[in-house]
Automatic annotation (TrEMBL), chain A:
Keyword match Transcription regulation: no
Protein's cellular compartments: Cell membrane
All residue ranges annotated as the FeoB-type G domain in the record: 16-172
Molecular functions per Gene Ontology: ferrous iron transmembrane transporter activity; GTP binding
Annotated transmembrane regions: 254-278, 330-349, 369-391, 403-427, 433-452, 496-520, 562-581, 593-613
UniProt-recorded name of the protein: Fe(2+) transporter FeoB
Length: 614, 72
């Protein structure tokens, strides 16, 4: 068999076998991975995606994890990554959920059909037993043609068996019809697994071989689905009917009457953890006490011994916007705790099964602005860090949706750093002003989304989402996810923050910052009816959003002026790192439109509010 | 009739699903022409939640309009 190795990102030692873990989302695959590899694990980002794959050693071989997928194809980034890792596998450990065999065995049969040796672990056997599901393991083994091992991974049951029998993995039963169908494509391509995907119409794999994607997906999928149902009929017997508590709880989260209050409670907990505990207490300590209190003076005096702070290099390294001062403080003191906090909450919501239900609950609302329920994820993340959220828009189905979500993030979502300062200033103004602020922002968000939805060509994708059972998330799993995601984000964002700092230092050194400041003044006084000094805050806001807001808090403003300036600064351009990411993700044209659009929105809306209330 | 017209608690057969990608994604969850499903929840003007065995799936309203069903 001549198959391509698509895994250029992972170093595979000479002669080592590639053992690939495959499974649907939420089947407990990571426990298997940890058991096989132990503590020494590498995480690498798959080029062009937000998808990270972990790999580690099992004896002299390499174990590679894949993102949870429902099938091998290329409907989204996760699937593309999983597909390429699977195609390069020497041996596949397929983990399936005993309770959801009807869904999971579809992937199992597809994996078997690739002709790669497979071993199947049926996980969560205890849950299945609890629900009166009986599975005839021996018969399943016989029907699939590969070893099948029952396990309860989180209770460490059956894992030794998996380890011991891993190399008994074998090529399973591939139906004769499919073999016949494959014969011709196989002749041209020379690799069984890739021939299968070409036949199933995968455009990328077909392109790699310079052939047209096949048109037989429907036929093959249907045949496979019938095989799954046939297998199930023989091996599964259910003794118990009725709805379980977790199913009921899941329904309550969906039903608007109970689901909406639940959502607000979840939001409040999230606000409390991120907005109060992390953004105020923890960041107060890490940013002010540690970084600004100890680190910055230390690095200034250390570098200052060799380079004067007033020299050009000195300004770049340890100046106001220095790489070793502001950038380091920002990333370590502010961003790191926030990003970790956000990913921690997101991982808990993800692993508990709540996130897909939330997506369903808000789907209708999101449709108004041309998005589907899934888009709630980047929008919520935006309140943490807009840069992080912009990268996450990759989970959305179409380019159109990504454009809309990115524009909303750039315009109307204040990030947590900024929100902290804004909340502090608003709190002193009273309920009336807080309400105006929130209503204006929601209006802008709605209008921007609605307008883009109208003007952008094409159609947005619809919601089709699996609602996994509500479960108590595992601590280890949540922590691991948080670390992996935070790490991946920082790896991507740190160079951009550094670049942003460099640009600003450059503006300062060349004196351009002062020039901009002078040019800017008329808009503030004429349009926004604010003192001309507020221009400085806006300039600062171009660098870091919270700088802008913080700049305002030092000024003597009337309550009306505070409100106007806060609305304008919130709508104003995203921070320099976020805008760089937007350029990278959406291209120069869209990136600059969003940036210019933020100027217009900020001063237009700010101006309108100013002339109404003043 | 189409899936968006289903009533909460109703049992249905899938008659046809329009759209290649959607059909391919749905069949993985065990939902395809001929399969019997249960309308578990309807969000007002929003997604339809269908269940089949232990599997639950939320389907956007517009998508549901493209799925032909028959009462079982």
């Amino acid at each position: 068999m001549h198959c391509h190795n698509n895994l250029t990102t992972i170093n595979i030692p000479e002669g080592a076998k590639k053992i690939v873990l495959v499974g649907n989302p939420n089947v407990g695959k990571s426990v298997f991975f940890n058991t096989l590899t132990g503590v020494y694990v590498d995480v690498s980002n798959f080029p062009g995606t937000t998808v990270d794959i972990s790999h580690g050693r099992f004896g002299s071989d390499v174990v590679i994890d894949t993102p949870g997928v429902y099938g091998i194809s290329s409907f989204n980034d996760e699937e593309i990554v999983a597909r390429d890792v699977i195609l390069s596998a020497d041996l596949i450990l397929n983990v399936v959920d005993a309770v959801h065999l009807e869904r999971d065995l579809f992937l199992t049969l597809q994996v078997i059909d690739t002709g790669i040796p497979v071993i199947v672990a049926i996980n969560m056997m205890d849950e299945a037993a609890e629900q009166g599901i009986k599975i005839d393991i021996d018969l399943l083994e016989h029907l699939l043609g590969v070893p099948v091992i029952p396990t309860v991974a989180i209770k460490n049951k059956g894992l030794d068996q998996v380890k011991a029998r891993l190399y008994e993995a074998q090529v399973g039963n591939i139906p004769a019809d499919l073999k016949k169908q494959l014969a011709e494509t196989l002749n041209r391509i020379g690799c069984w697994a890739e021939a299968l995907l070409v036949l199933e119409g995968d455009p990328h794999v077909a392109d790699r071989h310079g052939v047209e994607p096949g048109t037989q997906r429907d036929e093959i999928y249907h045949a496979r689905r019938h095989r799954v149902n046939d297998v199930l009929q023989h091996v599964v017997s259910e003794t118990q009917e009725g709805i379980r508590f977790s199913t009921k709880l899941g329904r309550l989260m969906l039903n608007p009457l109970t689901g909406i209050p639940f959502f607000f409670v979840a939001l409040y907990i999230m606000y409390y953890v991120i907005g109060v505990v992390v953004a105020q207490d923890i960041v107060g300590f890490t940013e002010e006490t540690i970084m600004q209190g100890f680190y910055e003076p230390a690095i200034r005096s250390f570098i200052g011994r060799f380079i004067s702070e007033e020299s050009i290099l000195g300004m770049i390294l340890i100046g106001e916007f220095g790489l070793l001062t502001m950038t380091a403080t920002y990333i370590v003191g502010l961003l790191l705790p926030l990003v970790v906090g956000f990913y921690l909450i997101l991982s808990i919501m993800e692993d508990s099964g709540y996130l897909p239900r939330l997506a369903a609950l808000v789907d209708r609302l999101m449709n108004v602005i041309g998005l589907n329920g899934r888009a709630i994820i980047p929008l919520i993340l935006g309140f943490g860090c807009v840069t992080m959220a912009t990268i996450t828009t990759r989970i959305l189905g179409t380019q159109r949706e990504r454009t809309i979500a990115t524009a909303i993030l750039g315009l109307a979502i204040p990030c947590s750093a900024q929100l902290g300062v804004i909340a502090g200033m608003l709190a002193g103004l009273g309920t009336k002003y807080i309400t105006i602020y929130v209503v204006v922002l929601i209006l802008v968000l709605g209008i921007v989304g609605k307008v883009l939805h109208k003007v952008l060509p094409g159609e947005s994708s619809d919601l089709l989402i699996d609602l996994p059972p509500i479960r108590l998330p595992g601590v280890k799993n949540v922590l691991k996810k948080t670390v992996t995601k935070s790490h991946a984000f920082l790896e991507e964002a740190v160079p951009l923050f550094a670049l942003g700092a460099l640009i600003i230092s450059g503006l300062q050194i060349t004196g351009l910052l002062d020039v901009i400041q002078t040019l800017f003044a008329p808009i503030t006084e004429g349009l926004l009816l604010l003192p001309r000094e507020t221009a400085t805050a806006f300039i600062m806001g171009m660098i870091r959003r919270d700088f802008g807001a913080a700049g305002l808090s030092d000024m003597a403003l009337t309550p009306e002026q505070t409100l106007i300036s806060l609305i304008a600064i919130t709508l104003f351009v995203p921070c320099i790192a976020a805008i760089i990411v937007m350029f990278k993700e959406r291209g120069a044209r869209e990136g600059s439109l969003i940036w210019i659009g933020s100027w217009i929105a900020a001063f237009l809306v700010g101006g309108i509010v100013a002339h109404i209330i003043l | 009739m189409t899936l968006d017209q289903a009533k909460r608690g109703q049992r249905l057969y899938i008659a046809s699903i329009t759209g290649d990608t959607v059909r391919a994604q749905a069949i993985r969850f065990g939902i395809f022409e001929g399969s019997e499903i249960h309308c578990a929840e309807k969000l007002p003007a929003g997604p339809i939640v269908i269940s089949k065995g232990k599997q639950e799936i939320a389907i956007g309203r517009r998508l549901a309009e493209n799925i032909e069903v028959q009462p079982a």
